[in-house]
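Lab manual, section 2.4: Encoding a predicted structure.

Procedure: take the sequence of the chain (228 residues), apply the prediction step described in section 2.3, and record the output as structure tokens. A sample record is shown.
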Amino acid sequence: MAKQHIFIVEDEPDIVDLLSYHLTLEGYIVSVVMRGDLAVAEITQGKPNLILLDLMLPGLGGIEICRLLKTKPETAGIPIIMVTARGDETDVVVGLEMGAEDYIIKPFSIKIVLARMQTILRRLNHAPDITPNFIKIHDITIDPGRHEVTGGKTPIALTASEFRLLHFLAQRPNWVFTREQIVDGVKGQDYVVTDRAVDVQMVSLRRKLGKRGEYIETVRGVGYRLKE
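Recorded output:
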């Protein structure tokens, strides 16, 4: 198997050295950029398998970098783990809403970083589901193979997280899922994220679906379901 390419976007030399050393030791190919305003161009050119992204960077902040990468077709599918000292829930929610896969708060254990990375890369490298069929709910069509959603004949642009959320609900229409079940189903078990983050992503998904967002129903005190 080809070595996985990891891009570190971080301006603290000690953290760069720590991550680079251990990732190289684990067999990863490592690239580093220490300025936010250079990150998008270098990542687009480098095409890594995963990005470790700091939030506080010179030139351009990590949240804006995440947003730009997730809106570019050639980089939208690259998973991002935010590595940040900013543990405030709002920062975490915004990053997840922008499409980040995970977040790790500084100071961190290198074992935790490696474990989170391996979980995401393993999920991406896993063979696709046996049934990559279209799912159609009302006039919403979900194509898991192409990672595309259309409303009628109009494409609906979703982040990777929003797509997984909609696809998860659509696999069992009318079934009510708790927030914990949604996190486990979309991100994988033991993924640490707040109920607030699930709610924010649901608001964003509904907004992008427009009138079709009404098909996603909030079941008070329980969770969410996609009405068929």
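Check your result against the sample. The first strand starts at residue 5 and ends at 9.
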